[in-house]
Every structure is written in C-alpha cells, then in structure tokens.
Amino acid sequence: MASEEYVSAFANQPVAPRNKYAEFIKENPLVPAFIGMTGLCLGGGFVAYRNGNQALSQNFQRGRVVFQGLTILSLIGGTWNMGTKKEAEKQRAEAAQSQA
Fold it and tell me: What whole-number distance in Å separates Cα of residue 44 and Cα of residue 56?
C-alpha cells in the first residue's frame, strides 16, 4: 500500500530529467557552485603538488574540505527549505479546502 501512495504522489507531475536538474539548480544554486569550487580546489591541489609546492597544495586541500562541508550544509539547508515550503503549501490547501 505504501508503494501505491509513493507512485500516486509522483504520477501527477511527471518531470523530465533535464527539467529536474534545472529545478534543483534553481532551488539550490549554492550546491553546484560549491561542487565546482571543490573540484577547482582538488585540481589546483594536484597541480601544486605536482609542481612541488607542498604548502600551496595543502592550502588547496584545506579549501577543498571547506567547500565539501559547505556543499553538505547547502544540501541540508535546501532540503529543509523545500520540506517547509511543501508543508506550508499542504497546510494552505487543507485550510482552503476546509473553508470551501
């Protein structure tokens, strides 16, 4: 029975994968930015290490860890925000339905 509810919850609004990612980026713009910065720090760290600059490489790796943490925090915050918006919409719909 739970699987039927799951299917019916998403059957009303089919979303194409391209639209799904565009919607995610629109609602959580910091996540892709932090992922990109993480990748840049990782790449910069590798280049610095290859060139023998261990201090710069270490700073890049510290930056990578910071951006990974910010990515996780952004994901948590975005998920919480979407959940509260959906709950508020549900409450408004129930209130409008009870008034009608």
Answer: 9
How far apart are alpha carbons 39 and 58 in whole angstroms?
A: 15
- Angstrom distance (rounded) from CA 100 to CA 98: 6
- In this prediction the pTM is 0.70
Token pair 């339905």 is found at 97
Pick from 22-31, 50-59, 73-82: least confident: 22-31
For residue 5, the tally of other CB atoms under 10 A from its CB is 8
The answer to whether residues 74 and 30 touch, using CB atoms and an 8 Å cutoff, is: yes
> Cα torsion for 46, 66, 82, 27, to the nearest 10°?
-50
- Please give the Cα distance from 31 to 78 (Å, whole number): 9
How confident is the model over 2-37, as pLDDT tens digits?
555 545 455 566 667 677 778 878 888 899 999 999
